[in-house]
Write a structure and sequence with these properties.
The protein is globular. It is mainly alpha-helical. It is 77% helix and 0% strand. The protein contains 15 helices and no strands.
Length: 391
């Protein structure tokens, strides 16, 4: 039985990225309220948030064969509404340990969705003969931006996180059925490798250099998601709406840049684009770290969103183009290390924020930006990069 509206394949991919990130993004504008309700510091909250990272890593490692057996359509249509249910349950936690445990199934579900939608974007891209990966991830950022705005407005009304995320369950379910009810997986890429991917792809020294190029993007993007709302509350006594708006602003700036990123990469070399983005994110991190003025903090968060937008896809393209071993293994090695950094780094910054101040959650990204500028030549000079899964 089919529901929803019939859409072109690429629009279904964009819709999947949007509703998935909208579901994820509903939590983060509410973190100040969740932290206050638990009565804990940034360190304990950061450790609790690792529950989602832990679940995601389990899922990315082991869920592939299970998804193949269940089917992509059935898994996706179940997983996105289920993700909203797990988020709604998690905010009832009374302490960090319970929050950690309740976020583990959230992470497992996230991993399943990540596998499906990135693979689907790659296959649709191949089928229609047109680059859509960066644009698909732009819709991921647009979804996060929308969730940030909605969450900010709801936070300002005083509605509890428990009620807020409970309301999101039917909203996400209905929108998922409308946008994805007629989803059918695209055909496998012709001529692709049929060998099973390794559970862990060993990184070479060249891959580690590529990790260093995009590491600042992973850390600063995650810091913006996890800590920007608490930063605005702690440093500038921002009202609930304006604290949550910080999450939306970074995601919105990232979304717009990602939407047009492919044209920039095709016009200029990857090294030029990467160094430009690194410089922008470095300026943003410096502003967030040093500014005593609230509106400059928002400018800095927006610049971080712009600067972190396309570094990871550029590094993935460079990994895929290496000839020292099969492209799939190099891509997997870069993805695994970078995803660990993205998921584990920002929550662990909670300890730094608690002991040295919330500004240091962003300040630690500054030397990583310098490292990226030094190693950016590893991206090569080709103007048109190969298409590879991103994020």
């Amino acid at each position: 039985m089919r529901f929803g509206i019939d859409l072109p394949p690429q629009i279904k991919v964009f819709g999947a990225f949007f509703i998935y990130s909208f579901t994820m993004g509903s939590l983060y504008p509410r973190l100040p309220a969740i932290q206050s309700a638990m009565g804990v510091g940034e360190g304990a909250l950061g450790l609790a948030l690792i529950g989602a990272a832990f679940g995601t890593l389990i899922s990315l490692t082991f869920a592939g064969p299970i998804i193949e057996r269940i089917g992509y359509r059935r898994t996706l249509l179940t997983a996105i509404p289920l993700l909203s249910v797990f988020y709604a349950i998690s905010v009832w936690a009374q302490g960090p340990l319970a929050f950690f445990l309740l976020l583990v199934p959230v992470g497992i579900t996230i991993g399943c969705i990540e596998i499906i939608i990135n693979l689907e974007a790659d296959r649709v891209e191949h089928a229609i003969g047109r680059r859509i990966m960066n644009r698909a991830h732009a819709f991921w950022s647009f979804g996060f931006f929308t969730a940030g705005l909605v969450g900010s407005f709801i936070a300002q009304t005083g509605l509890s996180p428990e009620a807020h995320l409970a309301i999101m369950v039917p909203v996400v379910t209905v929108v998922s059925l409308i946008l994805l009810g007629r989803f059918e997986p695209a055909e496998h890429r012709a001529g692709g490798s049929t060998e099973a991917a390794p559970r862990f792809a060993r990184p070479t020294s060249a891959i580690l250099v590529l990790v260093s190029v995009c590491l600042s993007a992973m850390i600063l993007e995650g810091a913006g998601i996890d800590w920007s709302a608490i930063y605005m509350r702690n440093e500038f006594q921002a009202a609930p709406f304006w604290a949550g708006f910080a999450v939306a602003l970074g995601a919105g700036a990232q979304a717009v840049t990602r939407f047009f990123a492919d044209s920039f990469v095709e016009r200029w070399s990857p090294v030029v684009v990467a160094r430009t983005l690194l410089t922008i994110s470095g300026i943003g991190a410096l502003m967030v770290f040093f500014t005593p003025v609230w509106w400059l903090a928002y400018v800095g968060l927006a610049l971080i969103g712009v600067g972190t937008s396309a570094l990871f896809p550029l590094a993935m393209s460079a990994a895929a183009q290496r000839t020292d071993r099969p492209a799939a293994i190099n891509v997997a090695a870069l993805a695994q290390i970078s995803f660990v950094s993205f998921l584990l780094g920002p929550p662990l910054l909670g300890y730094i924020a608690e002991h040295f101040g919330i500004r240091w959650a962003f300040g630690v990204g500054i030397p990583l930006v310098v490292l990226g500028l030094v190693t950016a030549n590893a991206l090569g000079t080709n103007r048109v990069s190969k298409v590879v899964p991103a994020e």
